[in-house]
## 1
Amino acid sequence: MSEDIISLIRENVIQGRVTKDDEGVDEEMVGQPGVSELIDKALASGIRVEDIINQGLTVGMTVVGQKFETKEYFIPDMLASAEAVGAAMEILEPHLAKSGIKPKGKIIVATVKGDLHDIGKNIVSILLRGAGYHVLDLGNDIEPQDIVDAVIKEKPQFLGLSALLTSTMQSMKGTIQLLTENGLRDKVKVIIGGAPVSEEFAQSIGADGYGADGFQALAVVESLSQEE
Amino acid sequence: MPREGILVHNPYERMTKEQVQQIHQASIEILNDLGLLSFNRKAAEIFSSHGAEVTTTSSGDTPCWHVKIPERLVLDALASTPKTVKLGARKPDNILVLKGDEPRVFFITGSETNIWLDVDFPSYTRKSDPSIETKIAEFRPRRGTVADLCDSAHVCEHLETVDGYIRTVNIQDKDINEDNKDVNKFFASLNNTTKHVMSGLTNPKQLDNVVKMAKLIVGGKDKLKENPIISFITCLTKSPLQFVDDTTETFMDVCQRGLPIVVSSSPQAGTTAPIKEAGIIAQINAEVLAGITLGQLVNKGTPVLYGSVPVRARMDTLGDSYGSVETSQYNIDCVQMARFYNIPNYSTSGVCDAKIPGQQSSIERLFSNIVVTLSGPQYLHCAYGLLDCNSVFCLLQAVLDDAHFQMIKFFLNPPRISEQELALTLKQIREVLATPQKLFIRYIRPVMRSGEISAPYPFEGDGNSDSVFALAYERMKELLAKPVEHIDPTTTARIFQEIPGLLPRLNVYGEER
C-alpha cells in the first residue's frame, strides 16, 4: 500500500502533475490524483515523511533530470515537475520538524528596484521550491531597504536578486551595500542573475554567486549550501 | 494516401486579375501575330494541319518554319489539358496529385548539374597559439558520377520535405555515353528512391528503354498509366519563341505515350527576353502555351505541367542570376498564369548565385524558397543542394535545405483559431492571473507534444562556434547509412536482362558490387 502510493508520487512528479486536473505528459491521467492529493493520502496512511521525500519526490526528480539530459524533457517539463515537488513540500512542511528532517534552507528572492521583469526570478523560485528550499518571493521593483528589512525579519540563508535591465542592475550593488551597512552581509549569501549581469559583475559588487540560468542558480545555491 | 505537400491557404499574388488577363492577351497576340520559329518539321506540320499559318523559312542554312498559332487552337488546347496530374511513385505513399486549381505545394529536387561538390573538414592550427586547432569546412568540386546520383537519391529519399526527385547531377563516368546515359540515370534514381522520378532525356532514342524499365517496375503498361512513376521535362522552346528540333521531337514522343511531361521555358530577362517584367512574362507565357498546344495536338489529354524557369540576367556577366529578386517575381507571375489556366505549375526557387554553401547561399535560396512557395506552385523545383546557378550540386547543402523547408512548411500551417480554442485560452489566462507567478509555462507541455511548436534549428551548435556544416555533415552521413528500399531482386534481374546499357555495378544484388 505505502509502496504503491510512493510509486504514484514518483510517477506524478515525473509527469509534472500537481493536482488531479493536470494533464501531465500522458493525457489520459487527467482526473487521477496528482502529487498534492497523493501527499495528503500518504500522510493519512501514516507513511513516513522521510520516505515520501527520499523515495517519492527525490527519486522522481532524479528521473526528470535524466530525461532532461537526454533531451526527452525540456524546461517546461522540468518546471512542471519542480512545481509538483514544490507543492508537495508545502504540504509536508508542518511535518518536517516532527519527523526530525532539517529543512534545506530559506531563500528570499526579489527583482530589484526599478525592474518589473520577473520571469527569470519566478522560474528560479519554482526550481528552488522543487529542490526543497523554502522560498519567499518579495516580487518585483523592490526597494533595497525592503529587501534588507525582509532579511532582518526572515533570517534566510540565501538572497536571490534579479534584474533584466542594464539600468537596474546597479540596484543590486546598492542592495548589497545596504546589507553591509546593516551588519548583515556575513549572515546571508547573495546570488544574482538576469540577462545583463555576469560572473565578473557579481564579483565586482561583492555577490557570493551568479547563475546564468535557473538551473545554474539552483546549482550555485546547492553548492553554497554544502559550504555552510 | 498520396503525399500531402503543403496547402497554401491564401497564396501570394503579385499581379491583379486584370494584369493576368492582360498578360494572357499579350501572349495570344504574340502567338497569333508574331508566331514562333519551329526548327522541327513535324511540329510545324501538325500546327499546319490544325489550321495554323505556317510558312517555310530558314535560319542561316537551317530550314525552319514560321508558325502563327491562332487563339482558337490555344484555347482548345487549354480546354483539353488535364487540370489534375498524377505523378506516381514506387511507394503509394509517395504519389503526388497536382491540382491546377489548388495551391498545394510539393517540394522537388533538381536539376542536373555537371559538378558535384565534396566537403571535408581539415584541421588548422592557429599560428599565434598552436594549441588551438580549428576544423573548417572546405568544398572541392569534381565531375559528377552515377555513384553520386545514387547517393543523392538515397539521401533525398530520407529527407522528409523532399516530395519528388529530379536527378541532381549529370553522370559523367568514363563508361557512360550518349546511348546508355538515360537508362542509367533513371535506374540509379528509381533504385534509390521510392518517390516520384522526373528527368530530361539525353538521347530521345532511349525513351522506349526508359519507359520499358518503368513498366517492368510497376508491372506493365496499364499499371504505368495508372501509376506513372516517371515523368519527363523538356525545354522545347529556346527563347525567344523557337521550337528546338530535338527536344521538340522528344516532347512529342513522350506526349504520344501519354506520360506526364513538363513544358518548360527558361528565358533570361535582358538577353533572350525583354528586361521588363511585363515583357518576359508575356513571352514565357506564350512559349509555354505554344508547347501545351503542341502537346494537345499530338495527343489530346496529355498530362502536362506549365513549366516556368524564368531568370534575370546578371549585369556584370549577362549570365543567369537566379539569386536576383526579380527571378522570384517572374516565377510568382508564372504561378499565377498557370493557376489562371488551372494547369499544375512547375516552378523554380532556391537556385542561388553563390558557388559554395554559406551565408550568401542561405540568404539567396531561403528568400526565393519562401516567397515562391507562398505563391502556391504545385510542383516546386526548389533546387535542393544546387549552387552556382545550376552548375554545382552539394549534398550537404541539400540536407541544409531540408531544414529550411521544415520551417517553411511549419509557417504555412493555418492558424488554429476557433471558438473552442479561444475559450480554452481564456480559461488559461484566468487561471494564470490568479497565481502569484503569472506564468503560462505549464500549458506549453501538451502543445509541445502535439507538434504545434516548431522544432529548433537542427544544426545549432553550442553557441560559441558555428557548427552548422559539421552537424549537417553528420546528418548527411546518418542518412547515407540508413537503408533505402531498392527495387526487388526479381525485377532488378529482369531490368538488367531486358534493358541494354545498364552498368553492372548498379545492380545491388549483382557480383560486381
## 2
Amino acid sequence: MSQHATETPSPASISALTTRALEELTALPDAESAEQWRVNYLGRRGHITGLLRSIPQLEPERRREVGTQANLAKNTLEEALARRVRELAEAELAARDALDVTLPGRPVIAGRLHPTTQIVREICDAFIAMGFSVIEGPEVELDHYNFEMLNIPAGHPARDMWNSLWVDYANEEGQQPMLLRTHTSPMQARVMEAQEPPVRVVVPGKCYRYEATDATHEWHFYQIEGLAVAEGITFANLKGTLYEFARRVFGPDRQIRFRCDYFPFVEPGVDMSISNFVDPSTGKRPINRDEDWIEIMGAGMVHPRVLEGVGYDPQRCTGFAFGMGPERIGMLKYGIDDIRHFYRNDVRFLRQF
Amino acid sequence: MLIPFSWLSQYVDITLTPDELAHRLTMGGIEVGDVITRGGWEGCVVGYVRATRPHPNADTLTLCEVDPGDGPPVEVVCGAPNVAAGQNICFARPGVALLNMHTGRREELKPARIRGIVSEGMICSEAELEISDEHEGIIVLPDDAVAGTPLDDVLGDTFLELELTPNRGDCLSMLGVAREIGAITGQPVLVPDISYPESATPVAELARVTIADPDLCHRYTASVITGITIGDSPLWLQDRLIRAGLRPINNVVDVTNYVMLEFNQPLHAFDLDTVADHHVVVRRAAAGEKFTTLDEVERKLSTDNLLIADPAKAIGIGGVMGGANSEITPATRNMLLESATFHNLNNRRTSTDLDLRTEASQRFEKGLRPELAPIALRRATQMILETAGGEAAAGIIDVFPDGDQPVLPVPLTVERLRQLLGMDLDISRAETVLASLGITTRRTGPDSLEADPPYWRSDIAIEEDLIEEVIRIIGYDEVPTTMLSSPIPYHQGDAMMALKDNLRDALSAAGMQETISYPLVSPDDLSRLHRVDDGHESLLRVANPMSAEQDVLRPTLAASILNTLAYNRGHNDGGFRLFELGRAFIPQDTGLPQERELAAGVMCGPRYDANWLSDSDALDFYDLSGALDTAFTRMGITVAYQASDSSLFHPGRCAEITVPGGEPASIGTVGELHPDVCDAFDTGPDPVIYFEVRLHDLLAATRDDGSAENRFQSLSRFPAANRDLALVVPDSVPANQVQHLIERVRLVERAELFDVYAGENLPDGARSLAFRIRFRAPDRTLTNDDVNRAINGLTRVLDREVGATIRE
C-alpha cells in the first residue's frame, strides 16, 4: 500500500494499472476470486480508490488530466467486473445443470383418426363449402329404397351391378325385404321424401356387396353420395361442382373429364375422371398411376322416374347425383396399393395418416 | 364380349386406329376393357399339303410335302393326327421365332432331324402361334387361302373386349358395335341383305304356331326349310365363330349362332319331324313339369317358366335352351327355325332360377324389340339355305298378338336440352347426331322433333334417353362448367353426427387410435364374449353370408375391437389404445333393425414404449378412465363412474359410466375384461381394458342436463387458498363420493385427490384419502378464519355422511 502514497500517478501508470487489472480479471477462475479482485482494485483501500485519493496532492495543472483518467479507469474496471461476474455465474450454471438435449423426450401419446374418417371429412368439407349439408342413413336398408325407388325393379338385369347381402328376415308375404345397403344412393329417395326441393346433401356411409376381395375390391367400404335438386339445376352445374371438388381434393391444376356410363337412377349417366398427366418439370405424374385419366366417380342427372317416385315434378325440378368411394380417393392421394389395408386396422398402417 | 375387327369391318369401315377407336367407344359409353392384337408371325405363310406318307420310323408321325407358295416343296415332319393332303396349313420356316412348347419361350425354329428324317419347318397348331393352348391338332385354313400368303393376313386380327353396361345389350352384336362406330366416325353401316328364294309351298301348310301365354312371348316368328343336309359349316363361318369365342357345331346351329352375333337376336332350330303335328305351342310349364335340356340335364319347372312345346310334349325352354328331344341331328332333313321375342324379366327369372345363363338368355333378359325377330329370321334362313341346302317355304309364320299397337315416338325439344344440360344446342345438331345413330326423326316444330326408337335399341324410351344419345356422341367436353346458382337449402345440423365427430376428435386427442372394422361377426366371436350363456338377445343374420366369419350383424363392438387388438398384437409391439365408432344392429319386431350408435375402445400392453423417463407398466383401468375423462371434459361433458358388475369384466374391476344429473344416466361401461374373455380372444398376458358407450344415451343425457352446452363462468378476481387434508375413510365409501361431498361445501372451488394410502397406522377397513382443496370467493379475499370455518363445516359433513375423520 505504501507505494500508492509514494508513487506519483500519471496517465501512463494509470493505463498500465488498468491493463494489469483487466488481465487479472480475465484469468479469474470463480466468483470468490472476483470478489478478492474487486477489493484489491475497487475496494476502499484498493488501487483505484487510492489513486483518486491522491489527486488533491498533485500540482493543480495535472489534477484535471489525471482525475479524468482515473475516473475513466474506475468505470472501465467496474463494468468489466460486472461482465466477468455474469460470465462466471453462467459458466457455473452450465457446469452444474447442462442437459443432453438429444435424449428422447418424455412420451406423450397422441391418437389419430382412421384414414377413411380423414378422407371422408376432407371430401365432405369440399362440398360443405359449396352449400351442401351432410346427412347419414341406415346401413340395413329396404329393397324398396335400395333398388325400387332408384328405378331398379325386381328382376332388372341392372341388379347384377350390385351383388347383395340379404338379411335373414322374411316379412308376412314371405319376401326378404332387407339387405345391407349396396350403395348410399337409397338416401336420395329418403331425403327427397322427407323434404321439398331445393335439396343439396352429401351422404357418407358404409356400404356392402357380396363380392370377393382383392387389392381393389372390398365387400365393406364407404361411399359418399351427393344430391342436388332444385329448379334450374343442369349438367353444367354438375360439372362445375365436381370440378371444384377435384381442385380442392387433388390440387388446383386438376382437369376433369366425363364419359357416358350407365346407372339406372340417372339419365344421362356419366363417369368422371381426373387428369394425371406427366408434369414436365418433374417428369412424374401427380398420382402414381400410369394413366392420363383416372376414373373416380359415377354421376348423372337424376332420372325423372326417381323424381316422380318421391312426388317431385320432373318437368319443374331437375337435379344431379354422384357417388364416389373415399377409399379409392385416399388410395390415389396417398399411393396406397391395396384397399384391404383400410379395414384390417394394422396400426402400422393407421399411424401413417 | 369379344369383337374381331375381321368380322366387324364387314359392316363398317374402321377409319381409326384400334386404340383411338377403343377410346372413342369408351367415351361414348361402350367401354372397351382391352384391345387384343393377334399376329406378328413374321416369316409364317400359308402352306399347301401336296401329299403325305407315314414316317418310316414312327407310327404317330407323318411326312408332309408342303408347298410354301414361293419356292420348291419341302418335307416337314408333323405329329398332329388331323394333318392330311389337300389342306391349307400354317407353315413356319426354319429361322422363324415361335413359341417353343417345351420351354414356354419364343425361340428361333431350327431344321431338326426327327427319327432320322430332317424336317424343314413346322406345321403349326394354335399353341405355337399363341392363339390358344390347343396343341393336339394343327390349324386347317380355309380352302380359298393362297399358299405363300403371309399368315398375318389370314389369321392376324384385332379384338375389342367390351365391358358392357346392362342397358347396351345391342352391343352384344357386330351390327350394334358397327352402328356405334358409324355414329362416331360418320362411316355408313352396311346391313346384310336378308332375302332368299322361297319355294311354292306356303309355310302355313308345313307348320303352325300358337302363343298360349302372350304376356311372356310378345312375338313368335318361324320359317320352315325342308331337304337340308347337316354337316360342318364352311371354314370361314367356323373361323368367325371361333374368333368370337363360340364353338362350331354343325351348319344349322352355327348359322343360328352367327346371326345371333350379327343381329343380337337369339334363334333356335328344331328338327321339324320331332314336333308333333308340326304345331308349336308357346305356353307356361305346368307346376313340377320336367324337361331335359340340350345339355342333357333334367330340369324341374314351375308355372313361371315359359316352354316351347308341341301338343304332346315340351321341346324347349323359351329363350333359354332347347331340348334334347328336338335338336338338329346329322339325320335332320326338315327344320323349323324360331326367332321370337320373350318377356325379359320372366326370361331372366327363369334362367336365374334354373341357374342356366346362356348366350340366348343374356340377350333376352336385357330386352329385345319384336321388330328384330323377323329380320334375324330371314337372315338366318338365307344363310342356312346357303350352307345346308334345302328349300325354304314361302313366307314366314308371324304370331304377334300386340302387333297392331304402334311404337310411340319419343319427343325431344331444345328447351328440355337446355333445362337438363345447361347449354344451347340446335335442333338440327341433335337431328344429325341421331341420324348418325340410325335413329329416324321428324320435326314437330321449329325447336322440337320426335324420334322413332330403332328396332335394335330397347333402351330408348323417354326424352332424357335421347338427350343422352345426343350428348354422349357430341361429347361432355362441350357442356359448359358452371357453379350452382339455386338457393342453398336451410339445414338443421344433426346432433348425433356432431357428437360422433366431437367424440372422435376427443378420443384421438386423448391418445387413442381410431379403427374401423366390419360390422359382420361370427357367432363364435359372440359366444367368446359370453362366458356364461345368459340367453343373449336375438341376432340378425345374413341370409347369404360369404363366410362363417361374417354371418351375424354385430350387437356389440366388443368382438370387432378385440379381434383388431388380437391381430395387432401378432404384428406389432404394444401398447394399444384403440377405439371405434360404429353401429350395432338390434332386431325389431317389424321393419328395419335399430341401428345403435356405439363407441368402444380398448387399452392393452405397456403404457409407454421402453424409454428412460417413464415407466413401461401395463396399461390399466385408470389409463382408460383417465383418457375417457380427458375426452369427455374436452367435449364439456362430466362423467362419473359407479362400481358395477358384468360377466364380461373382471369381478370388482368394472364401472358404469354415468352422466350426473337429477337422475344420473348410465351411458356405458368401462372395466378390465375378464381373463377368460382375454384368453378366448388370445389377446396376450396383459390386462385388456375395455369401454363401450351408447351414443344415443349420451346424447339424451347431455341434452337433459345441458352440460354439453358451453356456458361461460366468470373468473374470480380474488386469490384462492389451498389446504391439504388427509381423511380416514371406511373402505366401503367410494372416493368420488367423498370428493363430491367436499366440492358441495360453500367456498370450495375444487378438490383434487392426490394420495391414497392403506396400511400401518390406520384402522382396519379404512384408508386415507388426501385432498388438495382450493377455496375461493367470487367477491373478496378469503381470510384464515373463512377457510377454517369452511374446513370445520366440511369435516362435520364428512363425518355425518360417510364416517370420515381428519387424519392426525
